[in-house]
Write a structure and sequence with these properties.
The complex is a heterodimer of chains A (about 160) and B (about 450). Chain A is α+β, with helices and mostly antiparallel strands and about 160 residues long. Chain A has 7 helices and 4 strands, in the order H-H-H-H-E-H-H-E-E-E-H. Helix content of chain A is about 40%, strand content about 10%. Chain B has about 450 residues and is α/β, with parallel strands linked by helices. Classes of the chains: A alpha+beta (about 160), B alpha/beta (about 450).
Amino acid sequence: MRYSPELEDRFQRLVTIYPWRRSALVPMLLYAQDEVGYITDEVVEDIAERLELTPLEVRNVISYYSLLRTRPAGKYVVQVCTNISCLVTGAEDVLETCKERLGVEEKEVTSDGKFSVEEVECIGACSWAPAVQVNYDFHLNVTPEKVDSMLNSYRGGAKA
Amino acid sequence: MKTRYTPTPLASHPDEVRIISKRFGQGAQDIDQYIRLDGYKAARKALEMQPDDIINEVKASSLRGRGGAGFATGMKWSFIPKQSQADKYILVNGDESEPATCKDRLLVEYDPHAVIEGTIIAGLAVGAKLGFLYLRGEYRYLLEILEKAVDDAYSKGFLGKNIFGSNREFDIITQTGAGAYEVGEESALMESLEGKRGIPRLKPPFPAIKGLYGGPTVINNVETIASVPPIIINGGKWYASFGPEKNGGTRLTCLSGHFNKPGVYELPLGYPAKKMIYDVGGGIPNGRTLKALVPGGSSTFLLNREEAESASMDYDWFAKRGEFLGSGGVVAVDDQTCMVKFALRIIKFYQHESCGWCIPCREGTDWIKKTLTRFHAGAGMEKDIDQVYYLANNMAGRTFCALGDAAAFPTMSIIKKWRSEFEDHLNGKPCPFEKNVREMALV
């Protein structure tokens, strides 16, 4: 498995810093996913080998964490929080608007592979609700009216 | 993957007592600026102190765990054995996942060195040489801020083999999670840091005796740890004086939901909830009235308006009622909100986050969710109301970890206090607050 030199460096460091090597597993999976797009069979086997684990042990961990995915998602994953603080401030309308504008349902990917939409649990931005995360970027106080400009800012070439 | 960083908005109110938020918005991410603003003075002072004196100062402050459980921090530190064959560790819990809680992010974003400094002091107090700062996976931009702060502290010689030229050592490793509420529970957090599924451990042994990698481990919330440096500088008594007895200091209070002025405010413990709602939070928008208040994250018992207006925001006011102050996440709910739906959204969260390890939680949360989903959609039966209460009541206190309690308490309090709203959904009547009941995807 070939990663970017940056990620390779990070992996080299991660496998040495902990008292137990296995502690590097969750960060390695997440960083690999960031680069590859999702956790492929190849990634599983590679990380298992680096940490002296079996692929099954790695899969067992992957299935526990909701940020880790073994199937492709859009290049930009639009994650709309609908937990209580966001719910009472209009998050459902934000979620509906995102789905409508992108023409996809929950966890579907747009035909150009650019976006997918997910309803997510609390992302810790409650005082600035409703909140949306696109990949790791936070968007605060999002309203249905702001959805278009938020999405456009991820469309290369299109005006934000 | 590049993250776009937009600073999180800051709020302010004249009643705030700014102890841990005093450097917010002052560029303290920069280590030199942090030092100019009295940074790393407490760590230097702690290096001159005996470990027991550090612990006694923290005991005198009556600082209690800000993650939600409210356990006395100095007491927790004192449980760590002085002599230990296994290495000891400090584990800082920045998994911040309790719905409505958004305070640790501000500390890491605006004052990351305070978290590092508090961790060093905890290490000196208990004799640990390695600390972990664990942040939830969603907080990638904060991890980047924190990693830079840790690197800068190493460059200055504040971390490493010879901290502050004292010949003593302390290292810090930053860690990211990957999306799991359960990992905020201390034993599940250790499992996660060991590269496993975040399943809670059986206690005892408690982490202070056998924790991370089998060694004695102190686990503190980010806000708790950030409160330590000012206590060391100004003394435990000084810190304790801001709140009622046994409820020392201040806490970051996250106002969200139906407030005119939502935001994170640093308020002294024991602050009157009425002033918090109507003065600090600016009251309820759109001329509506307060129906319910979530006092400290979605796992706490909800208060009705009358209770909320007479509450005091300290651990013991709630403890006397058999309830909890919680995590600092306060949600105002106005009179146009459907409490059945609110209960449903809360249980959906806990059902989604239940690790499935123990049966009462796995089955209880699932059955309550299924029943309330049907109920809110207009197909409820009268017996469902008692059935949901019965399920919740049977989860409370009977699960492997506190997640079952967290799911049970709000559910029980909503049924008790707003039973009539459940009855209003019976006999095929549509939800009085919502014309088209939409199904949420997280079913």
